[in-house]
Design a protein that fits this description.
This protein has 2 helices and 8 strands. The chain has 118 residues and is an alpha+beta fold. The longest helix has 24 residues. The strands form 2 sheets. It has a 5-stranded mixed barrel. It has a two-stranded antiparallel sheet with strand order 1-2.
Length: 118
């Protein structure tokens, strides 16, 4: 049998085969995860108010108020896409255009970010 140093080619082949099978299984598992259909709403950030079971984000869109419940672990992102604390986001961006990303089915807001033209 041919040897590469102390490691046989057969052993190297076996390790590569196991790695490929594991990578394939991981890829199949990743495909099995369903994506949550998301919607985006952009408007002026008016307020966040407490409601039973959480908080409600209120935006002014085309002169009308639109609101939705905040996910308990909602992410708040600044202009650079950096995660910042909710209190800091509200202090800096109140009465400015922001975009809320919410689930189509439940209407829960998962991400609130500063509106950018990019």
């Amino acid at each position: 049998m041919m040897r590469m140093g102390d490691v046989s080619l057969r052993r190297v082949g076996t390790v590569l085969l196991v790695a490929l099978v594991a990578a394939g299984a991981f890829a199949l598992r990743a495909e099995a995860v369903t994506e949550i259909p998301m919607l985006e709403v952009t408007g002026t950030l008016e307020r966040v108010e407490p409601v039973e079971g959480g908080e409600l984000l209120v935006l002014k869109v085309d002169g009308k108020e639109a609101s939705g419940p905040l996910f308990s672990d909602c992410h708040f992102l600044d202009e650079r896409g950096t995660l910042i604390p909710k209190e800091e986001f509200l202090r800096r961006y109140m009465k400015r255009y922001v975009t809320a990303e919410l689930s189509e089915a439940e209407g829960l807001i998962y991400v609130c970010r500063v509106k950018t033209d990019a």
